[in-house]
Design brief:
Bound molecules: adenosine-5'-triphosphate
Shape: elongated
Number of domains: 2
Distance between the termini: 39 Å
Strand content: 5-15%
Number of strands: 9
Number of helices: 22
Mean pLDDT: 85
Helix content: 40-55%
Strand order of the largest sheet: 5-6-7-3-8-9
């Protein structure tokens, strides 16, 4: 590992001692018994503190409460340097690395850090490069600097995630089991990195599961939880004497962490001595000034971000575009899928649009094309958005950018690749099937195909925002099928029961089909051809529209209907994002 003084050059040392303390902290969820039961403690800067305890003792709940991730049901006092911080200031000072590492899978280590620097600092590009270099150095990421995040090892992913947090130079860093999934050597290395970071007077706090004796030695302080109560808070050095004071002696050569966790377990028969220790610890910890939680006292009045709204938008757009281009399902799969399908359809329905005797087949082609555009575009997004959403959540909570900046950039960045794929799809299918060559009709048809691609994209993002990949991949196709059914091709409006008729107005396929019908056969089209020997009952556009139950419709009215559905979905997406970050 490199020495930390390289880091000092660009990431300023935390200037003064920082102390995180909490008093009378209680967290109750739905259970009658509190998960954290009126606990207090202090974490000091320059120290690496381990939170240990048996499974279910409340370790993650404590970190969630201290990070501000969980405010509902939390009561008590959280202070930094004996002061209550407002929510925004608190987020600047404190970072939280959860067990799940949220990274954009298709960005390399260097790119991930570069974008993180662009979003979190305002300095010159030379300084930004220096910060990236320093973080790569201090977290020993040189070896994988050009490796995409999806290919990194578990330890490298965790270090990269810590590196992102380091950019904003937090004074207090919280970690939930940073060694989970790592072997003993990698775990030791990981905790050594955390230890290294304490040299800058940072306050480092980590939940750690069953640390080996070697690993435990790296920690300065311990905070031991037992069933939501504090059993010990203090230096590792004083741990054993504290237990010995009530006659609980750690056997020689026994791992101290195992000894303590065993005592803290609810199945331990020596309850009276444990209660005595908890009681004593409570009175030691409780000498702190009373105050309110930051979330209760100082509700956020307006957020300030490290960079301007414009910079947030541009950086996020660049990053999302890069991620989209490198994303297999969003680029290759979507593009190739659309092209292959349009070639396939074009060959099957070759020149069908030139012959009025094939009018039913032509409408089948139109509906199949629309279905394909919608299914391919929406499914491609469902597969990728949930990963992105977890990165958005993490960065939003770290105060990197606004919901509006993310929302705008997401729509903008995905729009061009989506359009490109759908334009090719439309053009190949349109010309192979021999649809009319007038520019006006082609543009009218093409516009509807693009709008359907847009609808599919936003529908998929909304689903990805609300549901997991598993649920989304089931729900989206199964909700699209009824929309297709009510689109006017599979069953006519007048054949539907009265109760079902309103559903027709909610179907984007319906608006699209009718608009395409108008584009192809409206405007007094008279040149619908008829092959020799073909039975052409309908030779004019007007007759065809009558047969399709589309007479007296207006192209722009149908396009507007589709547009309204798209606008509503945009509003829903924005609301979903706001709810997600609450
Ligand atoms: N929202 C919730 N609703 C109900 N119970 C909850 C909730 N959150 C946590 N719990 C319960 O609170 C207890 C403490 O959970 P927590 O995740 O903090 O434990 P932990 O010490 O981190 O455990 P582990 O080491 O297994 O991760 C557990 O019994 C858990 O089931």
């Amino acid at each position: 590992m490199q020495s930390s003084n390289i880091l000092d050059v660009t990431i300023p040392l935390v200037s003064r001692e920082t102390q995180l303390s909490f008093n009378g902290l209680t967290y109750s969820a739905s259970r009658v018994k509190p998960i954290l039961d009126n606990i207090s403690g202090t974490f000091r800067s320059g120290m690496l503190t381990a939170i240990i305890g048996p499974s279910g003792a409340g370790k993650s709940s404590l970190l969630n409460a201290l990070s501000g991730l969980r405010a509902k049901g939390v009561h008590g006092t959280i202070l930094i340097n004996n002061e209550i911080q407002d929510q925004q200031q608190y987020r600047r000072l404190v970072t939280y690395n959860t067990q799940e590492v949220a990274l954009l899978p298709n960005l390399t280590v260097r790119e991930t850090l570069e974008y993180a620097v662009d979003l979190r600092t305002r300095s010159s590009s030379t300084k930004k490069q220096k910060v990236v270099q320093d973080i790569i150095g201090v977290l020993a990421l040189q070896k994988c600097i050009n490796t995409q995040a999806r290919l990194l090892s578990g330890g490298e992913r965790k270090r990269l995630s810590i590196g992102q947090d380091l950019i904003s130079n937090p004074k207090i860093m919280l970690f939930d089991e940073p060694t989970s999934g790592l072997d003993s050597e990698s775990s030791y290395q990981m905790v050594s990195y955390l230890k290294e970071l304490t040299k800058q007077d940072r306050c480092m706090i980590s939940v750690i599961h069953q640390p080996s004796s070697d690993l435990l030695e790296l920690f300065d302080d311990l905070y031991v939880l037992s069933d939501g109560k504090c059993m010990y808070s203090g230096s590792l050095h004083d741990l054993i004497p504290w237990f010995e004071s009530v006659g609980l002696v750690c056997p020689q050569y026994y791992n101290r962490a195992d000894f303590v966790v065993k005592l803290a377990s609810t199945s331990n028969p020596d309850k009276s001595k444990i209660y005595q220790l908890m009681y004593q610890m409570e009175s030691v910890n409780k000498n702190k000034p009373p105050a309110l939680l930051p979330s209760e006292q100082n509700r956020l009045k307006g957020r300030q971000y490290p960079t301007s709204a414009f910079n947030q938008f541009i950086t996020l757009t660049r990053r999302t575009t890069l991620g989209t281009v490198r994303n297999f399902s969003l680029s290759v799969l979507r593009f190739v899928g659309l092209i292959i399908f349009s070639l396939f359809m074009g060959l099957i329905y070759r020149d069908i649009g030139k012959d009025a005797s094939n009018i039913i087949s032509n409408t089948a082609f139109i509906n199949l094309s629309l279905a394909n555009v919608v299914f391919v575009n929406s499914v491609a997004v469902i597969l990728s958005f949930p990963t992105e959403a977890s990165v958005f959540l993490r960065e939003y909570r770290a105060n990197c950018y606004s919901v509006a900046a993310y929302y705008g950039s997401k729509l903008f960045a995905d729009f061009i690749p989506m359009m490109a794929g759908n334009c090719c799809f439309f053009a190949i299918g349109y010309f192979l099937t021999g649809q009319p060559t007038e520019l006006e009709r082609a543009v009218g048809y093409g516009l509807v195909v693009l709008l359907m691609g847009w609808f599919a994209q936003i529908y998929g993002i909304c689903s990805g925002c609300v549901f997991s990949i598993e649920i989304g991949t089931f729900l989206v196709p199964s909700s699209l099928l009824p929309m297709l059914l009510f689109g006017g091709f599979f069953i006519r409006f007048d054949e539907l029961s009265v109760a079902l008729k309103p559903l027709v107005y909610t179907s984007p396929f319906g608006y699209a089909f009718k608009a395409i019908g108008q584009a192809l056969y409206g405007n007094n089209r008279t040149d619908v051809g008829c092959s020799e020997g073909g039975e052409c009952f309908y030779s004019s556009g007007e007759d065809i529209l009558k047969m399709l139950d589309m007479e007296n419709l207006n192209y722009w009215n149908e396009v507007s209907g589709l547009g309204i559905i798209i606008v509503i979905l945009h509003v829903i997406l924005f609301i979903c994002l706001l709810i997600k970050v609450r």
